Amino acid sequence: MRAPTAELPIGFENVTVAAGAVTILDRLTLTLVSGPPTILVGPNGSGKTTLLRAAMGLVTPSQGRITWGGREDVPPTRRAIVFQRPAMLRRTASGNIRYVLRAAGARRAEHKGRVDELLRLLGLEQVADRPARRLSGGEQQRLALARALARDPAVLFLDEPTASLDPAATKAIEDVIHAVSQRGIKVVMSTHNLGEARRLAGEIIMLHRGRVIETGPASSFFNTPQTAEAKTFIAGELLI
């Protein structure tokens, strides 16, 4: 288990994010704390991706503020994010990881051992020397996770990492999420898949129209939802 980090808690205080006349996050207040994975759910367009990007520090609020460990303007050296469609560098799988290690300032003598460790963790040993852009979708997503973990993050943001993957590839990604969470890395992840949310979540945050509709332990959210919107969403009905 890693030591407590200055990155947490991550606090959103009355945060609004707008793009022109469109409000993406609307006066959002919440706190992300250490512990089991926090899973963001909600219909498409509810603001999940923008919340992750803002928590990473990639989006500046139009109003309100975001704090990391009670401070603003904290460099994202202990945060990492994996997007739904990660770009692969024109290198081998192992070369992609080495590139991140160099960029993160890891000692050169540690590169080989760290690359080998991450390839094993992600089940990519057999494709280590294969061009990353020729890997399958599931392998590319696992490689993107390996690159993120090469930064030794305290907080890992994942934007629908299993979207469009087959069941075997999805299970491989979920197994990694369980493993890194058990190592003490805080995982904050969005998903459109309620079954996946049930399997992974310690905490659920439901968004709709840029607002937090409901938040709490996963068991309470799924068994005794408190809002009409949550009940509708869990039932698989369209939430307009």
CATH class of the domain at 10-87 and 152-234: Alpha Beta
SSE series: EEEHEEHHHEHEHEEHH
The name CATH uses for the topology of the domain at 10-87 and 152-234 is Rossmann fold
CATH homology-level superfamily of the domain at 10-87 and 152-234: P-loop containing nucleotide triphosphate hydrolases
Strand order of the largest sheet: 5-6-7-3-8-9
**Secondary structure: helix percent:** 25-40%
Question: What would a concise description of this structure say?
Answer:
The chain has 240 residues and is α/β, with parallel strands linked by helices. It has helices spanning 48-56, 93-103, 111-121, 137-149, 167-182, 194-200, 218-223, 228-234, and strands spanning 10-19, 22-32, 38-41, 63-68, 79-82, 155-159, 186-190, 203-208, 211-217.
What does this structure look like?
It contains 8 helices and 9 strands. The protein is of the alpha/beta class and 240 residues long. It has a domain at 10-87 and 152-234: P-loop containing nucleotide triphosphate hydrolases (Rossmann fold, 3-Layer(aba) Sandwich), CATH 3.40.50.300. A 6-stranded mixed β-sheet has the order 5-6-7-3-8-9, sandwiched between helices. The protein has a 3-stranded antiparallel β-sheet with strand order 2-1-4, covered by helices on one side. A hairpin with a 2-residue loop joins strand 1 (10-19) and strand 2 (22-32). Helix 2 (93-103) packs across helix 3 (111-121), helix 2 (93-103) runs parallel beside helix 4 and helix 4 packs parallel to helix 5. The radius of gyration is 18 Å and the shape is globular.
